[in-house]
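Lab notebook, bench 4. Still working through the backlog of constructs that have no structural model yet. Next entry is a single chain of 276 residues. Request: give me the structure tokens for it.
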Amino acid sequence: MTARQAGSPAESWQEHWFDHRQLLRLYHSDENCAIYLDPDVRRGEVSWLPRYIGAVWRYSKATYGDAFGPDPRIYSIHHAGRHGGGHAGYYVSPVHDYHNVSDCGLDTWREGNDLARELPAHEIGHSVESANNGRHGSPAYEIWGDSKWAEFFIYDLYTAFGLEREARQVYRRFTGNRDDFPRRGTRWFRDWFFPLWRDCGQAAVMDRFFRLLAANFPSEPDGTYPRRMNWGEYLHFTSGAAGADLRGQATRAFGWPRAWAEELERARDQFPGITY
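Model written out:
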């Protein structure tokens, strides 16, 4: 596999990233996904994966813009009994040979295992946030961290797919989650992301957020974002995506430090094209 080629996926793929050293075998490929399995994944458990992974990536492209690099596929890697959890890769990076990647490990990939859906969706959500609209990186990553945008993405995905049981389950879990950032006891999903989803067009509000970033936030000639956002910028861009001033909602969800008010005023001056 060479840089930025978008031909047919290879029949095998030797891992060479982090502590991964398995020889992966191609299980399935189509215009939306290429699914690779390590030697210990039981093939009898994964017949449902092509349909699901393909649908997740197809929905992602339809919802968040079809500018995720030259290859139309997500490369979905599945491990059994090793590399628990997951990570993502992006088409601009040589780490995963210039592919958008979801790389996950579980003990079992049976369809009845809720994590078999949730883990790849989480990692594909990182590709959405970090490789959309011809831009590279996630300026808001240090604001919302590893999992808060992922909760929005997963809940919206399950709802769009009509997975009612799964949507109710993650709603209860995500609503109950508490985090220590930006202040102790913050409920990101309950007080911020779910109200955005409910009141501002569901996934469309985050599509607008990413488009506003791509059109207005500083980027290098190759499309890379050179820096992360501060809180004032994040609230300015999110208010623009929502079409409403979100200071009141932000105060209820996160508090309102004086520094944020100053950052917000600077963001309004720096990005006057974003209005609400």
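Notes after review: Strands lie at 12-14, 23-29, 33-37, 74-80, 85-89, 101-106. The longest helix spans residues 114-130. Flag for follow-up if needed.
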